[in-house]
């Protein structure tokens, strides 16, 4: 698998749950936590996948999108990190303080709504 | 302790009893809870949180039912149909639910028997109760519920979260203060998050496991900048202070909030 260079204008997909969508449509910062005991948050690189493919194994999930460059402005590293079943898999690496998670949430858009 | 009254019967009864339908009012009494009763019972999308000091805190306003523990997790819940209007009396050690249409003056009479009795119209706290129910449902979430390897929601976090909701209800009722209902969300670390947001003003409380810790994050945008405050939340008074700030304070007030860490008030 070839490692891709992720550009600032690349969109990143993150699966989200209905639990994280507020009544006004905003996304909770709870949706943007690092995997436990790591500095990494998993995303998919949009140009290597689709929103539908991103949730294909998790039909109850929706998809939020944000720009790689936006995450980088928040002191995050964005790396293509393909895994066996998912060549689009990428990592947003860096400490996610409450402030940073809130900003990522504010900079994200729901592009596929989760099921209720 | 509460006493009998011609309109309704309230007894200091250790086991739950239910007044039957041919009585003027339906009554559920429940008192001391034995240690064998589990602290938390989650059933049918509803939450019961019990402890030795607080038999349980649960009223399902949405679906019009009450569930309460009797013996065990699997057989402990009895579904009682509850009419449209219900009243909840809390004398700290014993609980009584009376319905359907007890008048306010009757409730004041019961209050006279027990100075600590609090009378609450459940209806006005429906949103808080729904938030509490939502938190209770997190207990059913399996491992990897977020598709990214999330942990099971920690039960101590659920208990703490419902205690905070209870504190918000107390604040609302005791100070006659308009406390906004938080948005609640599960955390992939096994915790629970509460959020309030209005314009640029944002307050977040997260209850995290291992070890159990309650943290806060408050931020606002005064002219030309951004003020943020975060740390561990250790006292009820500080929680109240944050809520007061969120509702009534100015952006600049955030810089004057300081944790009150007096020993007596440490609860988190």
Shape of chain A: globular
Query: Any idea what the radius of gyration of chain B is?
Result: 20 Å
Count the beta strands of chain A. Answer: 6
Q: What separation lies between the terminal Cα atoms of chain B?
A: 30 Å
Low-confidence stretches of chain A: none
The helix content of chain A, as a percent range, equals 10-25%
String of helices and strands of chain A:
EEHEHEEHE
Secondary structure: helix percent of chain B: 10-25%
The end-to-end span of chain A amounts to 36 Å
Q: Taking all residues together, what is the mean pLDDT of chain A?
A: 96
Going by helix content, strand content and strand pairing, the class of chain A is alpha+beta
Order of the strands making up the biggest sheet of chain B:
1-2-8-7-9
Largest sheet of chain A: 6 strands, antiparallel
Give me the Rg of chain A, rounded. 13 Å
What features would you describe in this structure?
- The complex is a heterodimer of chains A (about 120) and B (about 270).
- Chain A has helices at about 50-55, 70-75, 100-105, and strands at about 10-15, 40-45, 60-65, 75-80, 90-95, 110.
- With about 120 residues, chain A is α+β, with helices and mostly antiparallel strands.
- Chain A has one domain (about 10-110).
- Chain A has a six-stranded antiparallel beta sheet with strand order 4-5-2-1-3-6.
- In chain A, a hairpin with an 8-residue loop joins strand 4 (about 75-80) and strand 5.
- The radius of gyration of chain A is 13 Å and the shape is globular.
- Chain B has about 270 residues and is an alpha+beta fold.
- Chain B has two domains: about 15-130, no CATH class; about 140-265, no CATH class.
- Chain B is about 20% helix and about 25% strand.
- Chain B has a five-stranded antiparallel beta sheet, with helices on one face. Chain B has a five-stranded antiparallel beta sheet with strand order 10-11-12-13-14. A two-stranded antiparallel sheet of chain B has the order 3-4.
């Amino acid at each position: 698998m070839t490692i891709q260079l992720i550009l600032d204008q690349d969109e990143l997909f993150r699966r989200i749950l209905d639990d994280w969508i507020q009544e006004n449509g905003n996304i909770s910062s709870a949706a943007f936590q690092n995997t436990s005991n790591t500095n990494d948050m998993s995303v998919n690189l949009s140009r290597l996948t689709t929103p539908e493919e991103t949730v294909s194994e998790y039909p109850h999930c929706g998809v939020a999108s944000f720009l790689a460059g936006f995450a980088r402005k928040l002191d995050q590293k964005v790396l293509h990190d393909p895994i066996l079943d998912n060549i689009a898999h990428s990592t947003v690496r860096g400490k996610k303080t409450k402030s940073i998670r809130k900003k990522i949430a504010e900079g994200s858009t729901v592009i596929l709504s989760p099921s209720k | 302790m509460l006493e009998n009254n011609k309109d309704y019967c309230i007894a200091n009864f250790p086991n739950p009893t239910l007044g039957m339908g041919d009585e003027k009012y339906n009554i559920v009494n429940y008192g001391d809870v034995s240690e064998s009763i589990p602290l938390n019972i989650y059933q049918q999308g509803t939450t019961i949180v019990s402890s030795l000091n607080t038999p349980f805190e649960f009223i399902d306003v949405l679906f019009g039912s009450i569930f309460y523990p009797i013996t065990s997790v699997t057989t402990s819940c009895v579904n009682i149909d509850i009419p449209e209007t219900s009243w909840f009396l809390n004398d700290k050690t014993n609980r009584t639910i009376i319905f359907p249409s007890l008048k306010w003056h009757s409730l004041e009479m019961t209050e006279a028997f027990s100075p600590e009795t609090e009378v609450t119209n459940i209806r006005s706290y429906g949103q808080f109760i729904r938030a509490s129910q939502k938190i209770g449902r997190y207990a059913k979430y399996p491992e990897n519920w977020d598709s990214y390897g999330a942990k099971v929601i920690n039960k101590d976090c659920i208990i703490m979260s419902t205690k905070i909701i209870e504190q918000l209800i107390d604040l609302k009722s005791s100070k006659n203060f308009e406390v906004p209902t938080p948005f609640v969300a599960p955390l992939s670390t096994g915790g629970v998050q509460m959020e309030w947001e209005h314009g640029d003003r944002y307050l977040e409380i997260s209850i995290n496991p291992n070890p159990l810790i309650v943290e806060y994050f408050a931020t606002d945008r005064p002219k030309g900048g951004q003020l943020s405050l975060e740390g561990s939340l250790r006292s009820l008074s500080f929680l109240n202070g944050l809520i007061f700030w969120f509702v009534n304070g100015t952006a600049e007030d955030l810089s004057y909030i300081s944790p009150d860490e007096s020993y007596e008030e440490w609860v988190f």
